[in-house]
Amino acid sequence: MKLLEFKKELLNACFDEIDDRVASLRKVMDEAQQSANDYGQPKDRYDSYRAQLLRKRDLFGQQLYKILEQRNILEKVNAEKTSDIVEFGAVVVTNMQKIFISVGLGKIECRGGDYFVISPGVPIFKAMEGMKAGDSFEFRGQKINILEIS
Predict the structure, then answer these.
(1) Which segments in the chain show pLDDT lower than 70?
(2) Domain segments of the chain as ranges
């Protein structure tokens, strides 16, 4: 039961991180749009400042789209289920680090510990996919032991 509570807490920390990124991107997109609106129409045909602001807004929009895709993937994690093998949605504790396999968010702090939130597409996941607690694998010349999976 405690493992499921922790998994929910870790998942919520990931949602909080994504929501913070979404809010930040929306803010800079709005600022770029407002700057373009304040600037007005191009002064002549060589004036590209407004176009640059709109391109900046569109680039942030692409980043926002990718982050919202990550949020959709994260919503597919079943926090009510523990895992016996290394798979999508599993929390894996090794002798080197603690890993949550879901989407690529990087390092998240939860309950005073650092967890690396990775996607199933990264090489370290491929190296340990399907393994169980107690198994070992080699990654980049280092032997890594899987201590616990939940």
Answers:
(1) 1, 45-47
(2) 2-74, 91-149
